Amino acid sequence: MATLVPLSPWFPARGEQQAQLIGQLSGLDFGDRPHLRGLGPRDLRDQAFVALRIYLQGLATRDEGCSVLVVEDLHWADDSSLDLLEHLQTHAAELPLALVMTGRPTLLERRPDWGAPEARLHLHPLPAEAVNDLARALL
Q1: Can you tell me the distance from the alpha carbon of 136 to that of 19, in angstroms, rounded to the nearest whole number?
Q2: Which terminus of the chain, N or C, has less C-beta within 10 A?
């Protein structure tokens, strides 16, 4: 059975509001809360992005380490998720966070300026023999 851990203690101030912003960003409905009620979609998104960044900073500070966020198949991500990941990349210097993301080249067709070009690792398809070796090793 999973244990639910409240987010609000991880914030230095306004913890409940910050946790509700992240919840709203995640698809939970906190729209009836007084401090979220009047926010437009753009303001809500921007404040939620900041709240998530504060949460990640606090998480790393308490653990005295680096958090790692792994996102696979980035090419399937919706635009809002890509916006959030770009926000985290933009503030990477402030965050003890390693972002490891995989995606197909179609992502760059959709967003040609995605990520820093020097941080990209382009992989070519494995030769047929290597595919067979990999399949044997896994099986």
Answers
A1: 46
A2: N
